[in-house]
Specification:
- This protein is mainly α.
- It has a domain of 65 residues.
- Helix content is 75%, strand content 7%.
- The protein contains two helices and two strands.
- Strands 1-2 form a two-stranded antiparallel ribbon.
- Helix 1 runs antiparallel to helix 2.
- The mean pLDDT is 88.
């Protein structure tokens, strides 16, 4: 958990962010983005190596019609997911830095 409830003597309960944990979460998101990027690249290499795997029968011919769009959609899904993971990582970094600064400022 990245928030901690604290109650100090003579004060009302308050919450503080555990910014080191938030920062670790940002790093985890970045690592996951890199992992997904590698999987995407491996899959792309398989597609290149296999070339046109549909065959020359009527079913292969039918599949051939939609193959480019399906392939494009698969890789677009990878790109979208990578962008989301990187966005989460960036946002968590900003939050961690903001909470760290606020904590340091409050300590004087």
């Amino acid at each position: 958990m990245s928030l901690r409830k604290e109650k100090r003597l003579g004060q009302e309960a308050s919450y503080s962010a555990q910014w080191p944990k938030i920062r670790r979460g940002a790093e985890t998101a970045k690592e996951e983005a890199e992992h997904v990027r590698k999987v995407r690249d491996e899959l792309r290499a398989v597609f290149v190596a296999e070339g046109r795997p549909m065959g020359d029968d009527q079913y292969g011919a039918e599949f051939e019609k939609s193959f480019p769009l399906r392939t494009k959609a698969v890789f677009k899904g990878f790109e979208d997911y990578i962008d989301e993971l990187e966005g989460v990582g960036d946002g968590l970094h900003v939050n961690a830095n903001t909470y760290e600064t606020a904590e340091l400022d409050s300590q004087g």
